[in-house]
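Re: the 361-residue chain
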Amino acid sequence: MVSSYNKANPKAHAKLLELPTSADQQRTQLIQRLRAKSSECDVIGMDVVWTAEFAGQNWLKDVSDLVNKRQGDFIPSTVKTAQYSGKTWAVPFNTNAGFLYYRTDKVKSPPTTWQQVYTDAKSDGGIVYQGAQYEGLTVDYLEMLYSAGGKIVDSSGKKLDLDKTKAAQVLSFMANGLKDGSAPKANVTYMEEESRRAFESGKPAFMRNWPYAYALDKKAAPIGSKFAVAPLPGWQGGHPASVLGGYNLGISAYSKNPAGAAAFINFVTQPAQQLVMGVKAALPPVLGSVYDDPKLKQAMPFASELRKAVQQGQARPVSPVYPQITEAIYKNVYAALQGQTSPQAAVNKMGSQVQNALKTF
């Protein structure tokens, strides 16, 4: 993208500053620069869950005008990940949403509710997901909670908005799945790759995972020809909900060339560039129109399912204290899944910890 931009704009001199592959290390290095008010980085690549934190610290420029001019281009759910306190602080760059993978030799058609998934899974090898004590468990829990109509914080990102009854129902459902065999107990040790390898082994009927697993599992014998993907199901009586991943691009508050930064961001979020990233790097586009391109459909045979998954996507709690919020979620969910505490007690503790985190900002 940097090379293409410089070629299209001979007077521009954009350069890429590579950060570590670990998201935590990327965040640490960016924060070090921003706290030092460094002008080294004009454009900042941020995991969607960092946007509110960076905006809350006054490290980003308001890009509401830039996004509003192109409002119709972006899939609306992706823009919400960049909004905080009534303004837009970044531009969606690439996105991601979870899929339900299912064995076509075991399941005739993908279930439309989580309840049916677990019922079917119980008799045919189970469902695998990301149940270890980390960010992936927050995502998997929120996908069900959002679909059941629940939330963690309100739309401002500043107040607790936790329906403890719904939250406990969802957590009880997940815990019971581990008890009755619908979900193997080993799920509590799985991150993305462990769950993918378990599904690849051929036993589980279902897997919740990101789109990246599709190409890898297609190459794996003997499962390669025996699975398909679908957008995530819904909680019984609710609407399906995905939790969005991906990256946003922000402009540093300390940039000496904000106009150049905006021009670069505008370039890499045009259809031609979004198509290149989708085809060459399997990064899901944030523009709805790109999903209709034959080249993307060839590179991502699941493009239409992916667009649906992104469209039904919701952001994780958009809050400057998100790191503390997610820790409160995954640690308490994990404790209930392990049987160390009751789902209701876990939800009560989760609510208290999130409340305390919100008070710190």
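The chain is about 45% helix and 10% strand.
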